[in-house]
Amino acid sequence: MLLKTMSFRIAFLVTVLLLILPQQAFVQDPGTVFDLVIANGRVIDPESGLDGVRHVGIVSGAIQSVSDSPLRGRKTIEASGLIVAPGFIDLHSHGQTLENYQAKAHDGVTTALEMEVGVGDIDHWYADRANKAPINYGATVGHIPNRMALLADPGAFLPAESAISTELSADQIEEMKQRLRKGLAAGALGIGFGIGYTPAATPWEILEMFRVAGEFKAPCYVHLRGGGEATGVQSLGEVLSASAVSGAPLHVVHINSTGGDAVPKLMEMILQARSHGMDVTTEAYPYTASATRIESALFSDGWQSRRNISYEDVQWAATGERLTAESFARYRKEGGSVIVHNMRESNIALAVTHPSVIIASDGNLRDGRGHPRSTGTFARVLGRYTREQKAMTWSDAIRKMTLLPAQRLEGRVPAMKNKGRIRAGADADITIFDPETVTDEATYQDPARYSRGIPYVLVRGTLVVNEGQLQEAALPGKAIRADRQ
Asked: Average of pLDDT values for 411-425?
């Protein structure tokens, strides 16, 4: 009887300790040798609220211990004075090439996803990147590429002709729905929409595509139909309605650029929709210029008045020159990338620092040319808005780059519950940066300059950036993909 009573008391005490002590307080067996230890870093985990000096032990690509006490490792990174954060997750990264993945790694990104435009053939797209990427990758099935294929549009990335101007018949809408169903069944992360680039797509067509997403409970990642205050409110209303009718979760891309001066109103609409139970999120990037293709629908007749800009606000990405009426006409026939200086810093700051807004780049480098957001988005948020302006805490900024995008994806990809966190059992996708020096270096004239102050980046426990140097032979990136259905 005495032994039974003592056993009960011991079991009770152990249970109490498990309940009152945080999981991270338990120290690994002192004999354990980890594959890699990150020692003495300031660990910030946005999920638990942890913000303190810890030692992180990694085994087989996963975090096994977050300890108050030192750990033994076959390799050790001394992180004194550095912040140890979950790897940054970029929900809006068009550049899905090695050039872009390497630039992302230097900016602390461990997962980069093509969600807005998306892709046509999901199986082919994923197969083409297997074992070739330093960071994790993934994509939606795209309304744009499938509409372009259906209508034989000659555009290379965005519509240039028929997919801009052609209204689909009922039969063509049904074919589009089948194309999107096939992509979702193959594991696409959702459906991507660039409604502003397909103005002939009627609200009914868009709703029908949202209904397909609703069948799979898959999110819709949407570039709104129009910009400016009146059209921005109307365009957001269109997709909020489609989301409510279809049950498909909604993510509004780059609210800073499509919202313009209506950003405060659009933010209010999204927050009110969320308060009524709708699954709606949004994102922003920290620059006052956008980027797009000059041959796209955004520059169809009347673009100056619609966007409240003129030729000199448009910059040819390949050379950096500001355009004139003559050069605009010439380049529009040629086709290519432009940077558009069209936003107010006050609206950017509002979106970038808002607690519910995800940070995402909308980046795409090609042969070293493009927009600096492709290379510097995350370091810019940390250096400019967090350290210099103190517009948010380190924990708040990290949460917007890690936990929030991971949570946006979890409903479709449950494995994302192990990303965006620093805890035992989470994937060892980790970014280590210097809070005193982290900053963006990319400019509009030189957009390929890597960020600095991010000396270590790990993907699945493998160093892809080590002491500030890219490890070109390291290709640990894996597919972020939903289950086949």
From this structure: 98
Which residue, among 353, 363, 358, has the nearest Cα to 388 in the 3D structure? 353
- Which H or E element spans position 170? helix 170-185
For the stretch 190-238, pLDDT in tens is 999 999 999 999 999 999 999 999 999 999 999 999 765 558 899 999 9
- Residue 13 confidence (pLDDT): 44
Q: Residue 204 CA to chain centroid, in angstroms? A: 28
The whole-model pTM stands at 0.93
Query: Which pLDDT score, from 0 to 100, does residue 4 have?
Result: 41
Closest CA to 349 of 319, 374, 384, 315: 384
Contact 138, 480 (CB under 8 A): yes
**Beta carbons of 265 and 229 less than 8 angstroms apart:** yes
Percent of the chain with pLDDT over 70: 93
Distance of CA 224 to the CA centre of its chain: 17
- Give residue 260's pLDDT: 85
Residues facing 77 on adjacent strands:
38
Distance CA 471, CA 463 (A): 7
Residue 321 has pLDDT above 70, yes or no: yes
The answer to whether 263 and 350 are in contact (CB under 8 A) is yes
Q: Are 430 and 37 in contact (CB under 8 A)?
A: no
Of the candidates 445, 398, 378, 381, the residue with the CA atom closest to the CA atom of residue 135: 378
Find where tokens 């400016």 sit. Answer: 228
> Of 450, 476, 478, nearest to 462 (Cα)?
476
Let me know how long the chain is.
485
H-run or E-run covering 481? none
How far apart CA 443 and CA 103 sit, in angstroms, is: 14
Alpha carbon distance 55, 42 (integer Å): 9
As a whole number, mean pLDDT of residues 12-19 equals 40
pLDDT at 273: 98
CA distance 358 to 286: 11
How far apart are the C-alpha atoms of 100 and 145, rounded to whole Å? 21
CB-based contact 195:206 (threshold 8 Å): yes
Under 8 Å between Cβ of 286 and 380: yes
Angle between helical axes of 229-246 and 263-275 (0-180°, round to 10): 20
